[in-house]
Design brief:
Elements (H helix, E strand, L loop, with lengths): L1 E5 L5 E5 L7 H32 L7 H34 L3 H9 L1
Helix pairs in contact: 1-2, 2-3
InterPro entries: SNARE, Syntaxin_N
Protein name: Syntaxin-7-like
Pfam families: Syntaxin_2
Length: 109
């Protein structure tokens, strides 16, 4: 399921939760999609962090900005950890697969 939060600049940050792995081609596809979505969110959040960092020491600097920056950094770090775990799951499922197409999916993403 997607988890979403909005910051005070109305940017949205979210990530996909892969849930429990069952195995099979549907699970490989689902994990691939979740990983792809999470990587996009990490990229978006990293861009947002950079914009906030650039505001520190300027007229836009505030406790609210610093708090928001801290929150987005922690959130993105957790997202990266979760995505790493999903990548391990995907690799494990692909390696244990007996169907060649399933292994091919991993190498294409």
């Amino acid at each position: 399921m997607a988890k979403t939060f909005s910051d005070r600049t109305h940017q949205s940050f979210s990530y996909q939760n892969a849930g429990n792995a069952e195995g099979g081609p549907d699970e490989l596809n689902r994990l691939s999609l979740v990983i792809s979505t999470n990587i996009q969110k990490i990229t978006q959040n990293t861009n947002s962090v950079q914009k906030m960092v650039n505001q520190i020491g300027t007229a836009q600097d505030s406790e609210s900005l610093r708090s928001q920056l801290h929150h987005v950094q922690n959130y993105t770090n957790q997202l990266a950890k979760d995505t790493h775990r999903y990548l391990k799951e995907l690799t494990s499922l692909a390696e244990s697969s007996s169907h060649p197409y399933q292994v091919c999916l991993l190498s294409e993403h």
